[in-house]
Amino acid sequence: MKTIFIVILLFTIALFWAQSLAQDEYEAVTVKSGQVNNGVVILVVQGDKARFALQCNAEVETCAKLQPGKYAMIRLPEHWGTYDDCWNVEVYATPTPPSPGILGKILGEYCVTEK
User: Fold this and answer.
1) Which of 91, 57, 89, 53 is nearest to 72 (CA)?
2) Residues contacting 47, CB < 8 A, separation 6+
């Protein structure tokens, strides 16, 4: 029983540590358009340097078709997130006014597909 508690505690600490570390390294992105095709949400996004697509499975709870506009995006550590075969990101509402290290509400988790 003690071992299970310690494992859960360590996992929780690691999760919060990774998220707080990532929140300092968010990227401002602009969603240009979005569509749903065969159960897959596809967002066309403009980052600082390139345009790319974000995808998620529409039936997944953390998937959302976002409206065009400005958001904050965090690239999760490798092998973290819902999707196994790509780089996972979380998209947040941009806080008003924007503050370094502080993000708004998480809106979705996506798989990055470069264009």
Assistant:
1) 91
2) 27, 28, 29, 73
State the maximum Cα–Cα separation within the chain, in Å, rounded to a whole number: 50
* Residue 64, helix vs strand vs coil: coil
Q: How many helices (H) and strands (E) does the chain have?
A: 1, 6
Mapping DSSP to helix (H, G, I), strand (E, B) and coil, where does residue 58 land? coil
* Distance linking the first and last C-alpha atoms of the chain: 49
In tens, the pLDDT along 49-67 reads 899 999 999 999 999 999 9
**96 CB neighbour count, 10 Å cutoff:** 7
> 């310690």: which residue's tokens?
6
What kind and span of H or E run contains 19?
helix 2-23
pTM: 0.72
Q: Are 35 and 67 in contact (CB under 8 A)?
A: no
Name the DSSP letter for residue 67. Answer: P
Residue (of 103, 58, 63, 64) closest to 81 by Cα position:
63
Report CA dihedral (52, 46, 107, 56) to the nearest 10 degrees.
Answer: -20
